[in-house]
Amino acid sequence: MKKLYFFDTTLRDGEQSLGITLNVRQKLQIAEQLVRLGVDIIEAGFPVSSPGDYEAVKEISKNIKGAVICGLTRCVQADIDLCAEALKYAENPRIHTGIAVSDLHMEKKLHLKPEEVIDLACACVKHAKTYCHDVEFYAEDAFRSDRNFLARILQEVIKAGATVINIPDTVGYATPWEFGELISFVKNTVENIDQAIISIHCHNDLGMATANSMAGLFAGATQIEGTINGIGERAGNTSLEEVIMALHSKKKEYPFALNIHTREITATSSLVSRITGIPIPYHKPIVGPNAFKHASGIHQDGILKERETYEIIDPATIGASQNQIILTARSGKHALRHKLFELGYRPESNQLDRLYGDFIQIADQKNEIFDQDLHTLMNSHPGH
Ligand code: KIV
Ligand code: ZN
């Protein structure tokens, strides 16, 4: 089985979200939990961006063991020097350097000719190699770049020593089949591609980051980048927990070896949400508060008979408590009986009709029925 590397950038791209500023202690706490989750690489920050980021990368390098610790740089020698300084205590350091490769970015943002971009990219990779063996090159805005130019620059940076090449969809513009095609193109066109790991890094502007990532993995990438809860610039990055569980649920289609401890997903997601102050949307796949709740009568009845009728993942797999049946005005008699049994009541089936009638009257006036409501209901029907 092929090894798949999980590259977590919650502390770098995730922290670039509007409204998030983490201190060193908070970043260390998240990094410790990411190791428990089993990610392979932690991108700890962008050292040149601020003294706080530099300090965080340094402290994570000193204190966090069990994962590669990575720092981001622009294609600027001084960035690389500072990043190497921050990473110097890491057991396994990685420098992640790169430059934009689309015509739009090269012309309007960098004011550089394509040949100049190639020269700069190679010089930076070579400079980073003087500090550490493990150098990842990102081709920013790769999805909107000219394909032949992309293939050329990737070939040259691999020659210069890049061990991982990152193909980002920086502005979340791809669809799954387009992104899969791009990865196939890179795999089939870049002559020395076997000397590097292909990494994918998707953004969620069109809501397709997870689907694009799955397509990229199907096409041959072996490193996936993303953040916990999908936090990140604008609409965010690929949600790592979604990719983990998609791979876990589809082992036959995606036969990868993973280091991930899925039971740590809920704890990791809650910690990131609590520390960043970014709430998890109700309907967020895998970790949303509603992700394992069943409110309609037909679904509740099915779940009580056989969990798999309406659940593709056992909540225990991600460390969440077992499915929670929420009683509402749409719940049926089966669900009411199940809840009452959980609370220690044993109504006879001929009493259940009357109880259910009263229950519906209460439920019609509330969004959700709590245990206390059921105790009140049962107090008005003594003898159970
Ligand atoms: O989205 C992007 O292109 C990035 C790179 C800096 C890796 O975050
Ligand atoms: Zn990004």
From TrEMBL:
InterPro entries: 2-IPM_HCS-like, AIPM/Hcit_synth_CS, Aldolase_TIM, LeuA/HCS_post-cat, PYR_CT. GO terms for molecular function: 2-isopropylmalate synthase activity. Transmembrane segments: none annotated. The keyword Secreted does not apply. It comes from the Bacteria. GO terms for biological process: L-leucine biosynthetic process. Keywords: Acyltransferase, Amino-acid biosynthesis, Branched-chain amino acid biosynthesis, Leucine biosynthesis, Manganese, Transferase. The keyword Phosphoprotein does not apply. CDD domains: DRE_TIM_IPMS (cd07940). Its EC number is 2.3.3.13. Pathway: Amino-acid biosynthesis; L-leucine biosynthesis; L-leucine from 3-methyl-2-oxobutanoate: step 1/4. Pfam families: HCS_D2, HMGL-like. Residues 4-266 form the Pyruvate carboxyltransferase domain. NCBIfam families: PRK00915.1-3 (NF002086). Belongs to the alpha-IPM synthase/homocitrate synthase family. LeuA type 1 subfamily. This is 2-isopropylmalate synthase. It comes from Syntrophobotulus glycolicus (strain DSM 8271 / FlGlyR).
